Amino acid sequence: MAMHTASAHAQINKVAFGSSGHPFDENSIVLKRQYDYFRSKILKIEVLSDEEKKSILDYLHRLPDALRLCHGNLHTSNFIVSKSKHYIVNWENAYIGHPASDVARTVLMLQIPYDHEDIPGLLKPMFSMILQSYAASYIKMYTSITEIEKKRHRRLDVACGGGTVK
């Protein structure tokens, strides 16, 4: 499944937009750019002070940007498998940005499942190891089939558990 996730994600991130933000023509749906997408989410976080939000936004502004399609919420629950075909659903978080931002978000979601409360206590360490292994496999496969440079690969490796992917 990690190979399917990586391959599908790479195909999504290959979609390039023009400088206007439109992949095809001026009548296309306009997606938010990476900075605006994350900015709107960060500003809604009530537990952060205004100073913390400003610091995060300053950092976000310095991150690399690109004109590529990003799903924004790609994880195993957003795949539907029918016979030999895979379909990706839940596009409401899509944005235009750098593929590395989309990949990093996917790795975080793979490592921190939102339904982990349902996992019995004794199984949580094993489940965590499985997710770490899946995330590491996904990252290794994604970077092997895409243009993400080794420098970013190492940063994504850290996000994936620190040194597990070579």
State the main characteristics:
166 residues, mainly alpha, two-stranded antiparallel ribbon, 6 helices, Aminoglycoside 3'-phosphotransferase, Chain: A, domain 2, disordered C terminus
Task: Walk me through this protein's architecture.
- The protein is mainly alpha-helical and 166 residues long.
- The chain has a single domain (2-159), classed as Aminoglycoside 3'-phosphotransferase, Chain: A, domain 2 (Alpha-Beta Complex).
- 48% of the residues lie in helices and 8% in strands.
- It has helices spanning 2-13, 34-43, 50-62, 99-111, 124-145, 150-159; strands at 68-70, 79-82, 85-88, 95-97.
- The strands form two sheets. A two-stranded antiparallel ribbon has the order 1-4.
- Helix 1 (2-13) packs across helix 5 (124-145) and helix 4 packs antiparallel against helix 5 (124-145).
